[in-house]
Design brief:
CATH architecture: Orthogonal Bundle
Mean pLDDT: 89
CATH class: Mainly Alpha
Oligomer: single chain
Largest sheet: 3 strands, antiparallel
CATH topology: Arc Repressor Mutant, subunit A
Radius of gyration: 13 Å
């Protein structure tokens, strides 16, 4: 990783990277504070997606931004 990360940011980044796509609710609350810093550094992105076709409510997910995509 070329960007400087704190130990907490690196731990959260690796957690998200291992799981692929994760619900934002699944990140431990004490570590969730690192998510805005990772978003600002361009390492992760938050997106909304509907879980059930019957329920129109969307849920927030987080994933690592693919560095290979221009």
């Amino acid at each position: 990783m070329s960007k400087e990360l704190s130990s907490t940011e690196e731990e959260v980044y690796n957690l998200i990277k291992r799981s692929g796509v994760t619900l934002t609710k699944q990140i431990p609350i004490k570590k969730a504070g690192a998510i805005p810093n990772l978003i600002n550094k361009g390492l992760v992105e938050v997106f909304k997606m509907s879980i059930s076709p019957r329920n129109p409510k969307k849920t927030k997910f987080i994933r690592v931004v693919d560095e290979n995509i221009p």
